[in-house]
Amino acid sequence: MPDPLQQALGLTHADPNEAELQLEDSVVARREERSVTNWIAMIRLFDGTEIPCTVKDISKSGAKLGVPEAFVLPSSFMLKVVGRDFVLRLTLAWRRGNYAGVRIDQIAKLQASEERKSETTSQTPDYRSIGRRRDRA
Q1: In whole angstroms, what is the distance from residue 70 CA to residue 53 CA?
Q2: Of 66, 104, 65, which Cα lies nearest the Cα of 88?
Q3: In whole angstroms, how far apart are CA 2 and each of 20, 35, 102, 125, 132?
Q4: Does the CA dihedral 104-110-66-76 come out positive or negative?
Q5: Cα separation, 17 vs 77, whole angstroms
Q6: Which fold has domain 31-112?
Q7: pTM of structure
Q8: Which residue has the higher pLDDT, 44 or 5?
Q9: CATH 2.40.10.220-classified regions of the chain
Q10: H or E element: which one contains 41?
Q11: Is the pLDDT of residue 131 over 80?
């Protein structure tokens, strides 16, 4: 006989594991609305190991990461989004297949290093050679 809570939520699945996952997802309410993203990121473990991943969605307090199932994630780690100037300290909340749910513990803004600043100012492009013919000597 189906569970009354499952009937109330309209969950009538033959597979009890699938019904349990559906029930868990429907009962858990989000504190903040998540924004869908497809950011390329790098997980950095505290031993220096780096794991490529994608950020599928994000909110003020958490995110959903796409991480290959072969990689084992510890309970906490760092995340650097490519092209962004911040790093996140995360705690693993759940893991299902190629996805992981994380809670954002801390956000740190990265400062631009002096080397990068000097490289960008010293590398002004030379446009004088554009449109000129080369000698065939």
Answers
A1: 12
A2: 104
A3: 12, 35, 32, 70, 79
A4: negative
A5: 29
A6: Thrombin, subunit H (2.40.10)
A7: 0.60
A8: 44
A9: 31-112
A10: strand 35-44
A11: no
